[in-house]
Amino acid sequence: MGMVSLRLNNAEEELFRSYAVHTGKTLSELFKTALAEQIEDQLDYEVGIQALNRYNENPVKHSIDDIIKELENDL
């Protein structure tokens, strides 16, 4: 298992440790969760930009009724 070191000033350490106690989680859990969420948000953003670019290249729109019909046909 890898280990990563993180430098915090006193105020950051106090805030983060206080929050960890408040949530009942370890600092490690909190940092891993926060970083994983940031990575997921970035990936979601990139996928959204790609979808927007594809739409701008071919701006086809579908009504909600058409989508419902297509989904019902798949059942």
Descriptors:
3 helices; 75 residues
Task: Describe the 3D structure.
With 75 residues, the protein is mainly α. The protein has one domain (10-74). Helices cover 75% and strands 0% of the residues. It has three helices and no strands. The longest helix is centred in the middle third of the chain and has 31 residues, at 27-57. The termini are far apart. The mean pLDDT is 95.
Structural class: mainly alpha
The general outline is elongated
Approximately what portion of the residues adopt beta-strand conformation?
Answer: under 5%
The number of distinct helices, counting runs of at least 4 residues, comes to 3
Please, what is the oligomeric state? single chain
> CA-to-CA gap between the ends?
46 Å
- The averaged pLDDT comes out at 95
Domain count? 1
Order of helices and strands: HHH
Task: List low-pLDDT spans.
Answer: none
Helix content: over 70%
Rg for CA atoms: 22 Å
Tell me the number of strands. 0
| Biggest sheet character | none
